[in-house]
Design goal:
- The complex is a heterodimer.
- By secondary structure, chain A is mostly helical.
- Chain A contains nine helices and no strands.
- In chain A, helix 2 packs across helix 3 and helix 3 crosses helix 4.
- Chain B is mainly alpha-helical.
- The longest helix of chain B has 17 residues.
- Classes of the chains: A mainly alpha, B mainly alpha.
- The interface between A and B is large, with 67 and 56 residues.
Chain lengths: 226, 77
């Protein structure tokens, strides 16, 4: 796991007063306290953030089955409010490496993401069956002729999950990889965060892949996808 | 070698994966690169790998991309 590189100019201590393209600069200038157009700029940005939040909530509506139409609008407003507060607090952190609006949309989408996950977790926390298991379900591969080989491979995988993973790695792998529990829902259930859970999952997968290879059942080589 | 696509997916853990946190500060840059029709893997190789695997980060990337496309680059005045 690593941090993505950023251009060195972005970390300069002599940052321009309002960086970025001309439109982005106007956003930053007008969102600063004391600007003559501060209120108008805040209102305009809040309006588009709320519309973006509502659109995103509808895009993720499969995880929001308990919400009705008016509740969508309430949650969208909450997301826009929270994003707006963050943007105003961090407006001078904007470095002009993207368009200002894309930078702002990021805040509201992350708010939606967090609220959707919390709602899904409150409505449907992971069941015991999704967190604990005994046997890898035999749903991997269905080609005729390799049934025996597949059973052997699944047996090796089951053994590796039991023997090679830490309890946390096993819990995370079983929930996410075998039971399709959302990574964010699991993070809330375990009092953790997405990055830490992903690290558990990544390490579990590497261990299992290595163990299967050692046992004579190598999985196809990982290839970069287009 | 047993080549089961499903098992490969189940155990996908690619070298160079930057993880979830690395994508948070650069997600806006990543999306703008995509919107310009350029290849984000050149500037952000680790996050590009990560986004192929992590559904949570994929959903966030898709959300920012959709918002930027749909609501555009409006001006404050």
């Amino acid at each position: 796991m690593s941090v993505e590189p950023t251009p060195t100019s972005a970390t300069s201590s002599t940052r321009p007063a309002a960086p970025g393209d001309p439109v982005s600069r106007r956003w930053v200038e007008q969102l600063r306290p004391g600007h003559a157009r501060h209120q108008q700029a805040v209102a305009k940005l809040h309006d588009v953030l709320e519309r973006a939040a509502l659109h995103e909530l509808h895009r993720r509506r499969a995880q929001l089955r308990a919400l009705s139409g008016p509740e969508f609008e309430d949650v969208a407003q909450q997301c826009a409010n929270d994003a707006m507060m963050n943007i105003l607090a961090k407006v001078d952190d904007f470095r002009g490496l993207s368009r200002f609006t894309t930078w702002a949309y990021k805040f509201v989408i992350f708010e939606v993401s967090g609220k959707v996950a919390r709602h899904a977790w409150q409505q449907h926390p992971p069941s015991t069956e999704e967190m604990v298991w005994e046997q890898v379900p035999d749903t991997l591969g269905d080609r005729p002729g390799d049934q025996a080989e597949r059973r052997e491979q699944l047996a090796a995988l089951t053994q590796a999950i039991h023997e090679d993973l830490t309890p946390r790695q096993r819990e995370v792998f079983v929930a996410i990889a075998l039971n399709d529990v959302s990574i964010d829902v699991l993070a809330l259930e375990l009092g953790s965060n997405r990055n830490a859970i992903y690290k558990n999952l990544f390490d579990a997968r590497r261990k299992l892949r290595a163990r299967l290879a050692d046992a004579g059942y190598p999985v196809a080589e990982e290839k970069a996808r287009p | 070698m047993i080549d089961l696509n499903a098992l490969d997916e189940l155990l996908r853990a690619q070298e160079g994966d930057a993880g979830c946190d690395a994508g948070v500060p650069i997600m806006d840059q990543y999306v703008d690169i995509v919107l310009r029709g350029e290849d984000p893997s050149k500037q952000f190789p680790g996050t590009t790998i990560h986004l192929r695997v992590c559904p949570g980060c994929q959903a966030d990337r898709d959300g920012v991309l959709e918002a930027a496309r749909r609501f555009g680059d409006l001006a404050p005045d």
